[in-house]
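Question:
Write out your own:
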Amino acid sequence: MHLNDYTIDSAELDWAQLLANWAPPLPESLAVWFANRFGDIFVIPEDGSVQLLDIQTGMVRKIAEGRDDFAERIDSENNAREWLLMPLVDRCMASGLTVSANQCYGFKIPPILGGSYENDNIVVKDMVEHYPFMADSRRK
C-alpha cells in the first residue's frame, strides 16, 4: 500500500475556505494534514492528536494520539482500509474513475441521505463545491 494512492494532493487547496462551514464539528484551531480520495480530512488540532472528519456523516473522531501513533495504527487491524476507504477507491480506479487536482470522489446521493456505497452512486466532485454541499447535507 502506498498512502499517495489513497490520498489527495492538498497542498494547493484553501482549506480555510473549504472547511468554513465545518466548525463545529471541527475545532476552530487545526492544521489539515491530508485528505483521503473521498474528501475525508485528517486534521491535527492544538493538542497534537490526529482526528478524522468523515464528510459523509459529519462526524469527527480522534484516531491517534499524534502523527507517530497514526503511523503505527494505520498498519494495524483494518485501519488503513477504513480510514482511507481503500476498497471503494480500488473499485473506482478499476472502473476507470479517477480524480485530478481539486477533485475527490463523492456520491450522487450521499449515504447520509440514503445513498449507497456502490460504484453506480460514486462520481467525481469538485472539492470547492463538494465541501459546502456536504456541510449543508449534514444539517438536514
